[in-house]
């Protein structure tokens, strides 16, 4: 059976299909052996680099804590999870939208989620990065799955007691959170469609 998804598929899709075909023991394999095993399982002559980067990313997240405990691992994985090329010698810049999706997909893949929030702690460098990218967009409050990046108490700019400015500031926060929610929801729908396709072929589930 050939692999039924394109190189633009989600990290979760290729990872779960690989584990179904190769077994949990494949989490211990070296990358070269993992690639060969995937190619054999799906009758590939040569796995594309883009698809392998996604597979390797998923296995990294399941087998190590690099995504949650190193800024390099977090940003490199975030780029790959948003269908960008993996750059081995470069730590990429990732947008707040990209971070929001990668955290959601990671939590969904590894099961570190409860009531919509991650149950695992992220390294302070990752939290600081998300906060700084948020500031670039004028965001100081984050949706529930990025709630670990919220300051307590939430920092507000000095508005000198102007209630109308305070209301406008909160409105902008709500609007941006709604945009993040919409972005993640659309990708959730796309991922669900991929997993349903794989489930029909008995490649996940």
Please give a handful of descriptors for the protein shown:
single chain, mainly alpha, elongated
Give the secondary structure arrangement, pairings included.
Layout: H1 11-22, H2 31-41, H3 49-63, H4 66-69, H5 71-81, H6 96-110, E1 113-114, E2 117-118, H7 124-136, H8 163-200
Antiparallel strand pairs: 1-2
Question: Can you describe this structure?
Answer:
- The protein has one domain.
- The model has no long low-confidence stretch (mean pLDDT 90).
- A hairpin with a 2-residue loop joins strand 1 and strand 2.
- Strands 1-2 form a two-stranded antiparallel sheet.
- By secondary structure, the chain is an all-alpha fold.
- The protein starts with 10 loop residues before the first helix and ends in a 5-residue tail after the last helix.
- It has eight helices and two strands, in the order H-H-H-H-H-H-E-E-H-H.
Structure at a glance:
With 205 residues, the protein is mostly helical. It contains eight helices and two strands, in the order ααααααββαα.
């Amino acid at each position: 059976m050939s692999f039924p998804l394109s190189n633009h598929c989600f990290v979760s899709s290729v990872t779960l299909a690989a584990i179904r075909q190769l077994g949990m023991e494949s989490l211990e394999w070296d990358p070269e052996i993992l690639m060969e095993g995937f190619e054999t399982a799906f009758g590939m002559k040569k796995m594309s680099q883009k698809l392998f980067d996604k597979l390797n990313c998923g296995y990294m997240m399941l087998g190590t804590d690099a995504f949650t405990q190193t800024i390099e691992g977090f940003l490199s994985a975030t780029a790959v999870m948003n269908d960008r090329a993996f750059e081995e010698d470069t730590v990429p810049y990732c947008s707040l939208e990209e971070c929001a999706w990668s955290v959601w997909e990671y939590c969904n893949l590894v099961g570190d989620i409860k009531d919509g929030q991650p149950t695992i702690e992220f390294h302070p460098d990752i939290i600081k990065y998300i906060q700084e990218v948020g500031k670039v967009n004028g965001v100081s409050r984050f949706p529930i799955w990025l709630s670990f990046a919220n300051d307590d108490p939430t920092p507000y700019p000095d508005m000198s007691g102007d209630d109308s400015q305070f209301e406008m500031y909160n409105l902008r926060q709500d609007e941006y959170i709604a945009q993040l929610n919409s972005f993640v929801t659309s990708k959730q729908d796309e991922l669900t469609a991929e997993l349903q396709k794989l489930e029909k072929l008995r490649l996940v589930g």
